[in-house]
Amino acid sequence: MYGTESIESLLTTKWAGRTLMFYDQTDSTNVQAVREVENGAPHGTLIVADRQTAGKGRRGRGWESPADTNIYFTLVLKPDFTPDRASMLTIVMAYSVNKAIQQEARLDCGIKWPNDIVVNGRKVCGILTEMKVAQGRICHVVIGVGINVGKQEFPAELSEKATCLEEACGAEVSRSSLLARIMKAFEEDYKTFIDCGNLRGLLDGYNQALVNRGAEVRVLDPKGEYEGTALGITENGELLVETGNGEVVEVYAGEVSVRGIYGYV
Ligand code: ATP
After folding, report:
1. Is the CB of 137 under 6 A from ligand 1?
2. 3, 69, 79, 193: most buried by Cβ count inside 10 Å?
3. Is 35 touching ligand 1 by the criterion CB < 6 Å?
4. What would the CATH number be for the domain defined by 4-208?
5. Containing H/E element for 129?
6. Which of 113, 114, 127 has its CA nearest to residue 74?
């Protein structure tokens, strides 16, 4: 049964997930994580819920979070670096989750920059990183991850855009085992990130997993949309997009989504 015991029995990490809090239901694991931080939860605390009643996406959007079938978790970090680097943690987590899904579900999934994992052009995972800063220093970062695992009916507006791991791989996927694998992968990738001070050590792997690489994309920048060819990411996590006139633009993830010209990817 999916819960504290099954997850703990599979964890092989030193610190990631070693303080574990499992909820049958919560509003949002990111919101719950912040409450736990206020109660003293340490670096590496893992908040897991079987269901979210108000799951969050980027820019105020929601994350569909039905019970009994999916993974919703938030990892708490208390890093010792400056706030401008925190957005790179989304990239680190996307890299770790993508690798763990490939291994656990034996799926040919990939990353849609910056924060989604896709299979066959459809989204199986979203990531939302939030932080609190005081006097120029990070108090905490919470990285929330939602993964569609078991077969489920998606709401009409997601039916063309979303899928789940079991549909894609045609086999059962253990939520506990996948979660433990993600923690292990993230612990390693986080160390590489800290050692380098940026994404240099993960760059080749991330760019290989990037489904947008070499693809025509439309950058949905609130200041004005434009199109170009995605080349890969930089050591700081920006997406390099070559526009029609040969100029290469560094796209910062903050306010921007990227779409394929002919579909979601
Ligand atoms: P995108 O680039 O897909 O617009 P985003 O990265 O800006 O998304 P996210 O925070 O990753 O946004 O996810 C929120 C969006 O994902 C929602 O607006 C909705 O379209 C979609 N979504 C919500 N729940 C799910 C789910 N369970 N599976 C797949 N997609 C979902």
Report:
1. no
2. 193
3. no
4. 3.30.930.10
5. strand 122-134
6. 127
pLDDT at 256: 80
Q: If you take atom 31 of ligand 1, which residue's CA is the nearest one?
A: 63
Q: How far is the CA of 105 from the centre of ligand 1 (A)?
A: 21
Q: Is the CB of 126 under 6 A from ligand 1?
A: yes
- pLDDT band (50, 70, 90) for residue 59: confident
Q: Quick one: three-class SS letters along 153-205?
A: CCCHHHCCCECCHHHHHCCCCCHHHHHHHHHHHHHHHHHHHHHHCCCHHHHHH
Tell me the pLDDT of the chain averaged across its residues: 96
Per-residue pLDDT reduced to its tens digit, 134-190 = 999 999 999 999 999 999 999 999 999 999 999 999 999 999 999 999 999 999 999
Contact of 123 with 110, CB cutoff 8 Å: no
Pocket-testing residue among 29, 51, 53, 63, ligand 1, by greatest number of atoms within 8 A of Cβ: 63
Residue 49's pLDDT is 98
Confidence tier at 253 by pLDDT (50, 70, 90): confident
Domain edges within the chain? 4-208, 212-258
Q: Give the closest residue to 194 by CA, choosing from 77, 50, 23, 94.
A: 77
In CATH, the architecture of 212-258 is Roll (2.30)
Residue 181: CB within 6 Å of ligand 1? no
Report d(CA 54, CA 38) in Å as an integer: 20
Going from the Cα of 145 to the center of ligand 1, the distance in angstroms, rounded, reads 11
Per-residue pLDDT at 254 exceeds 80: no
